[in-house]
Design a protein that fits this description.
Elements lengths: L6 E2 L5 E4 L6 E4 L9 H14 L1 E4 L6 H11 L2 E2 L14 E3 L20 E8 L7 E5 H7 L2 H9 L1 E5 L13 H5 L1 H4 L5 E5 L1 E3 L6 E3 L5 E4 L4 H15 L5 E4 L6 E5 L3 E5 L9 E7 L13 E3 L1
Length: 292
């Protein structure tokens, strides 16, 4: 497990773990356009180790955050909504629900590599976000379950997920047609994904799993719930209480996250940037494939 002692990578940048298994706070820097290469590398290394990192009191606007994202990886446009004026990669949302455990765009064959999130409007209270370490979840599986998970494949679909964990979804939310359109496809992914940089094994499930190969939908639901039990155990999670000026950066290949919808009719508007990912590989090196 992670060392709980604070670490420092330079005289101005410090990294302080926030939990025993996931989450760290980075202090001493602003994500400005002139951020040194070595500090960008330190941020990425901290993200790989702690899965999600947070920065407080960032003064830069959205354009500067986009410039930072180009140093961290390859930002991609969000094809399901137009960015705010003057921006290219930023997706702003307040109505689309995120109160379900998921990894971004997992129905694609090359899901998002890294997510960057910052608030634009916050409710007076509530609206936190929770992240989970899916490598820690895999490590917790009993050996027989690890052996089973290593061999399983699942189809992720934006249109017909196996379980939407938010209560009382509308028909539009059940089909997800209204949000993602007719062009949305699916992907067949390994349930255990080998991380391309850390070589860790991660449980790759989430709420848009449609079915597991070889299993009917009902037993598949129970398999899904079993794996998600380990993913969402409190010991494997970190809950972030947002303030204006905060930025979260997470490894989408090694996490799931959940936007807590506990703010009633108040407004909560977030801005997100996604970095281009790669095709997941199973423990025996087989790649994910597209499902029409």
């Amino acid at each position: 497990m992670l060392d709980s002692k604070p670490t420092s990578t330079s005289s101005t940048l410090s990294i302080k773990p926030l939990g025993g298994r996931v989450g760290a706070l980075i202090e001493g820097i602003q994500l400005s356009g002139d951020l040194p290469v070595e500090q960008v590398s330190a941020i990425r290394e901290a993200m790989l180790r702690h899965k999600v990192v947070f920065l407080r009191d960032q003064q830069e606007g959205s354009a500067a955050l986009e410039a930072f994202s180009e140093k961290l990886g390859e930002p991609i446009p969000y094809t399901y909504a137009d960015p705010p004026e003057g921006l290219e990669y930023t997706w702003e949302f307040d109505e689309i629900r995120s109160d379900h455990w998921h990894s971004d765009l997992s129905w694609q064959t090359d899901p998002v590599e890294v997510g960057i999130l910052t608030p634009a409007v916050l409710p007076e209270s509530g609206g936190n976000t929770v992240w989970s370490n899916t490598a820690a979840a895999y490590e917790e599986l009993p050996e027989p379950l690890q052996a089973m998970a290593n061999k399983l494949w699942a189809v992720h679909s934006a249109k017909k997920p196996i379980a939407l964990s938010f209560p009382n979804p509308s028909e539009d939310e059940l089909t997800i047609q209204g949000r993602f359109g007719n062009e949305a496809t699916g992907a067949r992914h390994p349930v255990v994904r080998v991380h391309p940089e850390t070589s860790e094994r991660n449980l790759f499930v989430g709420n848009v799993v449609y079915y597991f190969d070889g299993f009917a939908r009902t037993p598949g639901q129970h398999i899904y719930e079993l794996f998600q039990y380990y993913v969402t155990r409190p010991e494997n999670t970190i809950r972030w209480h947002w303030r204006m000026g905060d930025v979260a950066i997470w490894d989408n290949r090694a996490t799931q996250y959940y936007g807590v919808r506990d703010y009633g009719d108040e407004r909560r508007t977030m801005q997100r940037i996604s970095l281009k990912g790669s095709v997941p590989l199973s423990v025996d090196g087989k790649p994910s494939t597209v499902v029409a």
